């Protein structure tokens, strides 16, 4: 991951953690807020009187109760889960870099249903179009992946469809200059870049865009994407 990407993920995690703390303290477990305030006051006065035994008791007692209270919140559990997932993801990425990206098969062994090509892969990198291939409409479902669809190495029909659903990761679609597209993109949090237009830090958005010559174009591509957390980039190439 690049430094910018890391900062974006950290920014997102901090925002979600703060929201979870706020919801839990204000709406779910209001008693926790009272404990946090009481423990903070004990720490404050204990520090001022730390030279006395009473001050030490107040300080360390307040610190202990504050630590236990925060540790038992859902927000902290969420952050711990994110750390575990991140470590697993880094390990898996290193393994994928050693093996190279997985190309979606375009042979008879591929999973086809109703004339569409399904390339489900829950984790890792998915790259369709690294080599020449026969076009079939694409439907991909993934959990954590970087997905790249290159439309330059195939012959597209008059109407082509791409459907991608994933939880976390980046989706990149490379479109030839003579092909026009219509995009329906839903994202809980993430960036969206379509040609020369960029929307940063979108939160709970549904974005519908259409290239200028779509209505009159002979060849058109419909792109439907649903991403919980991640980035969609549609570019010419």
UniProtKB/TrEMBL annotation:
Residues 122-234 form the Cell wall-active antibiotics response LiaF-like C-terminal domain. InterPro entries: Cell_wall_LiaF, DUF7649, LiaF-like_C, LiaF_C. The chain crosses the membrane at residues 12-45, 57-89. Coiled coil: none annotated. Residues 9-88 form the DUF7649 domain. Keywords: Membrane, Transmembrane, Transmembrane helix. NCBIfam families: LiaF_C_term. This is Cell wall-active antibiotics response protein LiaF. The lineage of its organism: Bacteria, Bacillati, Bacillota, Bacilli, Bacillales. The gene is liaF.
